[in-house]
């Protein structure tokens, strides 16, 4: 017999997932906003149509997740993980396309995506965070390699490796900070629970 979650639990989890998806949508504004600023300053080799496509990809991801959450009857922990990581990896692949189209400004994509990654680190454990960093770096290298070697974009892979060698430690440091904050929050919750049990 399948265990059904109470309506109150489903409602609370559904609201949380909606909130996470909205935060994710907010975090997309930063990398896309940087791209628009480069266009406005006349330093871009791409146009608004390309950035609009990237933006549409980001937004479609979150809107799809919210619709999926709305019609899902049982919001299990497995479904929560599925929705969160669906958004994470979808956006990583969109960001890889972003890296390709931004050509000589490709290095700005990881900087702009830092807010998205921080959102992931807050919601995940260290192993999941490190895996997301690994996927992000691999996709960045792949998009850069295709752009430089096959599309004649400016730059060199040596510079990209040097850039990533400074970017990755920053990501790892932020992931550790987020993990520390998570642990502190768990300790506070546990202490509060003990206090409530003592005074009950």
General description of the model:
Helices cover 83% and strands 0% of the residues. It has 200 residues and is mostly helical.
Assess the beta-strand content as a share of residues.
Answer: under 5%
How many angstroms separate the termini?
35 Å
H/E element order: HHHHHHH
Class computed from helices, strands and strand pairing: mainly alpha
Q: What number is the mean pLDDT?
A: 87
* Largest beta-sheet characterization: none
Q: Report the total helices.
A: 7
Could you tell me the radius of gyration in angstroms? 20 Å
Characterize the overall form.
globular
Helix content: over 70%
Low-confidence stretches: none
Strands, total number: 0
Helices and strands in order:
Elements: H1 7-40, H2 48-71, H3 77-101, H4 108-112, H5 114-123, H6 126-150, H7 157-199
Helix pairs in contact: 1-2, 1-3, 2-3, 3-6, 5-7, 6-7
Structural features:
mainly alpha, 7 helices, 200 residues
Task: Characterize this entry briefly.
By secondary structure, the protein is mostly helical.
């Amino acid at each position: 017999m399948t265990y059904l979650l109470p309506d109150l639990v489903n409602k609370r989890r559904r609201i949380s997932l909606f909130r996470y998806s909205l935060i994710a949508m907010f975090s997309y504004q930063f990398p896309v906003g940087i791209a628009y600023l480069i266009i406005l300053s006349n330093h871009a080799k791409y146009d608004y149509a390309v950035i609009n496509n990237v933006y549409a990809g980001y937004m479609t991801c979150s809107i799809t997740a919210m619709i999926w959450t709305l019609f899902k009857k049982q919001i299990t922990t497995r479904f929560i993980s599925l929705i969160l990581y669906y958004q994470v990896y979808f956006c990583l692949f969109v960001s890889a396309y972003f890296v390709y189209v931004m050509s000589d400004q490709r290095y700005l994509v990881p900087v702009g995506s830092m807010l998205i990654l921080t959102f992931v680190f807050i919601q995940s454990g260290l192993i999941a965070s490190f895996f997301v960093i690994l996927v992000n770096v691999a996709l960045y290298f792949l998009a850069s390699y295709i752009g430089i070697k096959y599309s004649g974009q400016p730059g060199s892979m040596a510079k990209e490796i040097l850039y990533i060698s400074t970017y990755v430690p920053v990501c790892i440091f932020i992931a550790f900070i987020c993990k520390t904050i998570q642990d502190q929050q768990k300790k506070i919750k546990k202490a509060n629970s003990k206090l409530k049990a003592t005074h009950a």
